[in-house]
Design a protein that fits this description.
Two copies of one chain form a homodimer. Chain A is mostly helical. Helices cover 59% and strands 0% of the residues of chain A.
């Protein structure tokens, strides 16, 4: 079943709170830099990895067994991963892509997220490394889901609204042309304004003496500079890999 | 270091958003009853357990390796669990308990949570079993952390404010007397009112056509009937097991 652009936009809107909640939860711990230093995990038998990398890998290995990555929009950050041990029944989608990983932007999501941490969290070390990296993983997974769900369904829906226009650009390998055709500034601005209000409301009753308040601008900046551009980058990749209609 | 009652109350207040966010996130999926039926996990080689039980167990087994349950307030739902593979440095607390599991109420938390699901979530089945049980686990862990952090530190702090009064009740095994002495109705009412406002604010900008709105009364009822009574039950257990001062 093809999702209309309006329906995709609504579903993406519904994922905003989840991303906001998870970022705010991570911000309750300090940066805890040592958790990101290779070889400093303090984990028996893991001499090379950071605690963060280890946690992300172990969580994704477990999630893989439960079938998470059978879902097109759930793109992992780790490779390789074990096969699913669970039969997952996927909803029928109209997506035209065989290898969703070929349109994955998780590498860039990871880098953008790690770059955000020093401004999202208070500086310093509170010793809560385990909780910090646990929340990192949940935030990253929410971002990956939102970005890839958006990119796959938006790209497919826009393509179907203008197959000849898109085909020409795809044939010419015109990435800039695709990006320009996919872009709707007014929609992007509306998303950013909505996110701004949601971040404020979610923390309206926060006791700032015990809970770190996350500035709405921080989250909207992250949406503007990363979530939205990476969604579009993934849309371009999706279109370049799109299977011909049968 | 002994935490004052005021400081404990503040830290508990700071955990409210986390619980609220996680309950709201779970509510975005339907009840998905089959995920709770033993033998219906669809997981290779797991003939007996439900998907929910399997997910909880696997997550806690992984968390145990990372040292989560070395922290007194992080009480697990699963037993037995592997030993930590990570050296965890705990903050110095003034708690007087050797075996925090002896004051654990996770069995009752689990039951209360499962009883909440049919009202928290929309009825029916959306096929998103993996996401549902994933969010169950996060919500349960947030509840366990809040309830046990509260009970251990509140009990210790109240004991120190009135050691003779509490000693008498402990010696007599007077659980009802302990419960009465620990209870502060005005504080409980203030918590409930605060939670009510937070649930409303967190969803103030929700688009109800794509995101389920969780009624504040549902969460406050859960606090009133379960979170607060289970915290007090765990306080009583803590006091009955409290080690003598040295």
């Amino acid at each position: 079943m093809l999702l209309t652009l309006e329906r995709v936009a609504e579903l993406l809107e519904g994922l905003e709170e989840t991303i906001i909640f998870k970022l705010i939860d991570r911000a309750q711990f300090r940066v805890n830099e040592i958790a990101y230093v290779p070889g400093k995990s303090g984990f028996d038998g893991e001499a090379d990895r950071s605690l963060f990398v280890l946690r992300l890998r172990r969580q994704e290995e477990m999630d893989a067994l439960f079938g998470r990555f059978c879902v097109p929009e759930e793109r992992p950050f780790t490779t390789p991963l074990p096969a699913s041990k669970r039969a997952v029944t996927l909803p029928d989608t109209a997506l035209r892509i065989d290898e969703p990983d070929s349109a994955s932007v998780t590498k860039a999501i990871l880098q953008a997220y790690l770059d955000l941490l020093p401004t999202l969290c208070a500086a310093g070390d509170d010793g809560q490394y385990g909780s910090s990296v646990e929340h990192d993983v949940y935030a990253l997974q929410a971002l990956s889901r939102r970005i890839h769900f958006g990119s796959f369904h938006v790209a497919e829906s826009k393509y179907r609204g203008d197959p000849r226009g898109y085909e020409r650009l795809i044939r010419n390998g015109d990435r800039d042309g695709l990006l320009a055709r996919l872009t709707r500034r007014d929609v992007e601005e509306a998303i950013i304004e909505r996110v701004r209000h949601k971040v404020g409301h979610a923390q309206a009753r926060v006791n700032r003496s015990v809970r770190k308040y996350v500035e709405p601008d921080l989250v909207t900046g992250f949406y503007r500079d990363h979530v939205i551009p990476l969604t579009k980058e993934s849309e371009v990749r999706y279109l370049m890999k799109r299977k011909p209609d049968v």
